[in-house]
Design goal:
Shape: globular
CATH class: Alpha Beta
Strand content: 35-45%
Helix content: 25-40%
Distance between the termini: 37 Å
Number of domains: 1
Radius of gyration: 14 Å
Oligomer: single chain
């Protein structure tokens, strides 16, 4: 079963290669939705797709590498009733 997780990674730019390693090492798809990277810090709003266990292992590993992980909450508005 394919799972999806939407998180924000906050980290120093030196850790940017972590995103590539997530896909390669844990067999998940990484979809960058938004990002802002400067010389001193950065963040990436990223969607991870794959097996739920692989996603969790990837998130645990990313945290161990020094990334701060923040869940992204997506608000969905209901259509107005007629």
């Amino acid at each position: 079963m394919v799972a999806s997780s939407h998180v924000k990674f906050i980290y120093p730019p030196a850790l940017l290669p972590v995103i590539y390693q997530l896909g390669k090492q844990f067999n998940i798809v990484t979809n960058i939705r938004r990002a802002d990277i400067s010389d001193s810090h950065g963040w990436v709003d990223i969607e991870l797709q794959g097996d739920a266990r692989d996603i969790q292992r990837a998130l645990d590993w990313a945290h161990q590498q020094g990334l701060y992980l923040e869940p992204v909450v997506i608000a969905v508005a209901a259509a107005p009733s007629s």
